[in-house]
Structures are given as C-alpha cells and as structure tokens.
Automatic annotation (TrEMBL):
Protein localization: Endoplasmic reticulum; Membrane
Superkingdom of the organism of origin: Eukaryota
Name of protein: Lysophospholipid acyltransferase 5
Annotated organism of origin: Anopheles gambiae (African malaria mosquito)
UniProt pathway annotation: Phospholipid metabolism; Lipid metabolism; phospholipid metabolism
Entry's family note: Belongs to the membrane-bound acyltransferase family.
Keyword Cell division: no
Keywords: Acyltransferase, Endoplasmic reticulum, Lipid biosynthesis, Lipid metabolism, Membrane, Phospholipid biosynthesis, Phospholipid metabolism, Transferase, Transmembrane, Transmembrane helix
Bias type Low complexity, positions: 463-474
InterPro entries: LPLAT_7/PORCN-like, MBOAT_fam
Keyword Cytoplasm in record: no
Region (Disordered): 457-480
GO biological process: lipid modification; phosphatidylcholine biosynthetic process; phosphatidylethanolamine acyl-chain remodeling
Membrane-traversing stretches: 18-35, 47-63, 250-269, 337-359, 389-418, 430-451
Length: 480
C-alpha cells in the first residue's frame, strides 16, 4: 500500500519529515474548527486540545514523543513542589535547556534536520516562561501586590494542553499561560467571531509565500552557492544572488509561521487583550500571536526592521525573560549580547548560529550609531523632502542594503557548518565583515564630521544643559 506522506514527498521533492510538518500545521485548521463547536467546559476543552496536540506530535515523531512528555512531567513536579521556592526558575531553566542541549549533541548532523528537537526547542521556551511567570506571581503575592497578571500553577491536564496546543506545538508561536488561561475560560470568545475570515487571510498569505519559496528555490538554491559556477560570477552579481537567495530562504519561515498563526486564530487564541490605553488596537484584533509582521518585513529600510518583524513572539519571549532579566548588568550592550548568545545556544551548537547572531549585534549597533546622525541633520532632511530623485536613489540604496546584506548575514544560519559558510564568505571576499567591522569603528565618526549636527539642534541641546537637564541623559539611558 502506498504511504500518502511518502507519495507527497516524492512528488514535491521535499523530505518526509517536512511533509509531515506541513500536513500537521494544516491539520490544525479542521481541529480548530471542531474546537469552536465544543460546548463543554474547561475540562472538556483541555482534554480535546491535549489529545489532538499529542496526536500531532506522535504523527511526526512517533516514540520520540517521550522527550516532551518527560519535560512536561518534570515541569509539573517543579511547579508543584518548588512553586513558592526561589529554586523554581533555576531548576526549570537548567533542566529544560540542559536536556535540549544534550538532545542537540546526540542528534546534530551536518545539515538542519527536522527531528524531535525542533518542537522541543519550542516547548523549552514555553515551560521556562511558565516557571518565570509562576515565580513572579508568587513574589507579587508574597509582597501583597497581586495583579491581573498573576497566575495559579496549572493542573497536569492544563499543562499538557498548554504545552501541546495543536496549532503551535511544532513551530510556535510562543504564548503565555495567562493567555491560554483566559482563552480556555472563554474570555476571548465575544471578540473572535470573525476569526475564520482572519484565519483565511493568514492561510492564503502562508500559501503564497510557500509557493514563492518553492518556485524561487528552483532558481536560487543552496547548492548553487557551493558550486564552482557561483565562484565564476562577478563580485557584484554574487552579492545580488545572495540577496535574492536570502529573501527566498526567509519566505520558507514566513510561510510556516503564517500557516501556524492562521490555525491559532481559528481556535480564538490570538485576541489582543491589552488594557485600553496600553496600545491602539481594534476591539476584535486577532494578531496577538503573530510571528511575522509582513508589512514591516516587506518594507524594510534597515536591518532593525527585520528584528522587529521576524520571529516576533520568540524575540518578545527573549526580551521578557532574558534581556530584561539581565538588567543587573547595568549595561544594555551586555544585556543585548547575553540575549543573542541565549538565542544562539537555544538553536544549537553549530558555529553558524553564533556567527549569525554576532553579525546581528554588529549591524544593529552600527545602525543605532548612524541613524541619528542622518536624522539630526536638518539640511539633509530638507534636501530629501525637496528632491524626489534623491529620495528615489536613497530608497534603492536602502533596499540594496537591507536585502543584499541580510542575505549575506543569513549564510551561516542556513549552512551551519564552519567549512560551508566559510567557503561562501571566502568566495565573496568577506565583504560583510569588512563592511560591518569598519562601519562600527569608522562610519559614525566620519558621518559626524561630514554631517554635523544642525545648529538648531545643537542650540536646543545647549539650552537643555543650561537648564540643568544634561542632553546626553537620554543617550546614556538608552545605551546603558
């Protein structure tokens, strides 16, 4: 008898694990539609979510499901017996990250593989985040300052359902137990009547990007970057190719995140329940679990826009549970480096991960130094407003910068192994390292000399200092 999964893999050219992954994300749509019709209480809803989520993981990884089951069991024991102890977070963090890294050690190969460690890295963040939230809640209660964000320790059924939520168990996005608790309690139901229509939009966007990725890889493939033909291209064309390749590669991630988000929307999990005044949002906005901001991504004019728009929920998680927790360092640069190192080791041991996040740090730091220099020069800003041709040239230059060099920075993340990404960087003459290292050292001083601060801005700074408010205060707070 023909295995339909293997038949689809053979027809599409994709691997069997990749086909299982895509099918599982798509399965979450009908599963979510059935969930919307359930009339039972919280127990029945949790049972349905837990059973379907476990089934999806078993379909993908078979007996390897025991890794995640063990993680849930350990998390439940920690939450139960260490719930009021200061040991809860360090024990949970050490166990979950340690287990994941041991899993990487035994399963890592020369390429990116879809194995049990892929959903496990999603699970690790979810359960560590839960430990942080429980610890914060108990601390607020002990201080006599409980608030609406305080959560109780979940029951075993709640924990299983939260961990194995069908739409997000394999590829994310991340969400808090507080969100899940409100969702199960029905707090979002009155705001999610239009969820099917919004989910359809996300589904169609996901399919579009998936098709573009599949078609694009036929013309800009990983294999070509390692080929002798690529070496024969001119240096300019090599960089153009890298930019196109990087864009198409990112579409692979965007497509699966959009499909997963659409499935989460079907359930009604994604309602934004910010307090009035916290942010501007529509009363039935359903983008609370969005992992990709398509509009920002497609209109990038700096590398920082990639950070703002790509893998949003993971970045938010790291900001809340790593970056902000490093404030005791009293230095934003060190906190930033710590957060990026966590992201690198969370991905695995391949050298490519560490180089990619180091490059991100270098590029973001360079942009933060350079961007204010352009913004504060009034003559340049007036010239841009008055000259449409100059604006067009700047637009083209920024597009070249964001697309080409994003592709350059993505090389280690995709090729992972040192000998592969080093070979490609050798072929393009290490141009990005030259640009970003020299840019961090020399670009800002040169621009300050060429584009001095406008007189009105400098005058305002002097007046502020004379009034007893040092103008550098904001900059110091920003960088430290």
């Amino acid at each position: 008898m023909i295995n339909p999964v293997e038949a689809l893999a053979s027809a599409s050219g994709a691997s069997v694990p990749a086909i299982r992954l895509i099918l599982s994300v798509l399965f979450a749509y009908p599963i979510g539609s059935v969930y919307r019709q359930l009339k039972g209480g919280a127990t029945q809803r949790n049972l349905y979510i837990a059973f379907t989520g476990l089934s999806i993981v078993a379909f993908n990884y078979g007996t390897d499901i025991y890794h995640s089951l063990l993680a849930v069991a350990v998390s439940f024991l920690c939450n139960t017996f260490l719930g009021t102890s200061r040991l809860l977070v360090p024990v949970s963090f050490t166990y979950h990250m340690g287990y994941l890294l041991i899993g990487y050690y035994y399963t890592t190969s020369d390429t990116y593989d879809i194995k049990w460690t892929m959903p496990h890295c999603v699970l690790v963040l979810r359960l560590i985040g839960l430990a942080f939230d429980l610890s914060d809640s108990r601390k607020k209660e002990a201080d006599g300052k409980p608030d609406a964000k305080c959560i109780p320790a979940p029951s075993l059924l709640e924990l299983i359902a939260f961990t194995y939520f069908p739409a997000t168990v394999l590829v994310g996005p991340q969400f808090s137990f507080l969100r899940y608790q409100r969702f199960i309690a029905g707090a979002y139901e009155s705001h999610t009547q239009n969820a099917p229509a919004y989910a359809t939009k996300k589904f169609l966007q996901g399919v579009f990007y998936l098709v573009v990725n599949q078609v694009g890889t036929q013309y800009v493939s990983d294999a070509y970057l390692m080929s002798s033909e690529f070496e024969q291209e001119s240096l300019f064309m090599k960089h153009i190719y890298l930019g196109c390749w990087g864009r198409i590669t990112l579409y692979k991630y965007i497509s699966i995140w959009l499909l997963a988000e659409g499935a989460a929307v079907i359930y009604g999990l994604t309602y934004i329940d910010a307090k009035p005044g916290d942010r501007e949002y529509c009363s039935d906005e359903l983008s609370g679990c969005s992992n990709i901001r398509v509009g920002v991504f497609e209109n990038t004019s700096k590398y920082g826009h990639y950070v703002e728009s790509f893998n949003v929920q993971t970045n938010t998680w790291v900001a809340n549970y790593v970056y902000k927790r490093l404030r005791f360092l009293n230095n934003r640069m060190l906190s930033h480096l710590g957060a990026l190192f966590f992201l690198a080791i969370w991905h695995g041991f391949h050298s490519g991960y560490y180089i990619t996040f180091l490059l991100e740090f270098m590029v973001i730091r360079m942009e933060k130094e350079v961007e204010p220099i352009f913004a504060r020069n009034e003559k340049l800003q007036q010239l841009l407003q008055q000259q449409p041709l100059l604006r067009a040239l700047v637009f083209v230059a920024l597009k070249y910068y964001t697309i080409v060099w994003a592709g350059w920075c993505l090389v280690p993340f995709v090729f992972l192994s040192f000998h592969k990404w080093w070979h490609i960087y050798t072929v393009v003459r290490f141009s990005g390292f030259i640009l970003f290292i020299s840019g961090n050292i020399f670009l800002a001083p040169i621009l300050r000399a060429v584009l001095p601060r406008s007189s009105s801005t400098a005058k305002g700074k002097t007046e502020a200092a004379a009034a007893g408010a040092p103008a550098a205060t904001a900059e110091v707070k920003k960088d430290n």
